[in-house]
Write a structure and sequence with these properties.
By secondary structure, this protein is mostly beta strands. It has strands spanning 14-15, 36-42, 48-54, 64-69, 73-79, 86-93. Bound molecules: calcium ion (CA).
């Protein structure tokens, strides 16, 4: 799992665009549109974690990525205006 210049890193505040191929299989909104992809990956923290990638506006490209470490810590990433820099928009722990 590559994301820009390294693994998905919950410790960073920004990143390049996600390097994985977006292949959604889940209809998260219940509207009949398959818009979300869920997979496990090695996070830059060294832990394996869950990645949830979603296409919120339906244009076929991912525009929100949330990473969950197995201990419940999560980080949400969203792209800036030109999609070249993604920033952390939320952090927390479940
Ligand atoms: Ca989109």
């Amino acid at each position: 799992m590559e994301w820009a210049d390294g693994l998905i890193d919950p410790g960073r505040a920004e990143s390049g665009p996600p390097g994985f191929e977006f292949d959604p299989t889940v209809d998260a909104g219940g509207d009949g549109v398959v818009d979300t992809m869920v997979f496990r990956a090695d996070l830059a923290s060294g832990e394996a974690g869950l990645v949830i990638a979603a296409d919120l506006d339906g244009d076929g490209t991912v525009d929100r990525v949330t990473t969950f470490e197995d201990d419940g810590d999560f980080v949400r990433w969203e792209p800036g205006e030109n999609d070249s820099v993604w920033t952390v928009t939320e952090r927390g722990s479940l």
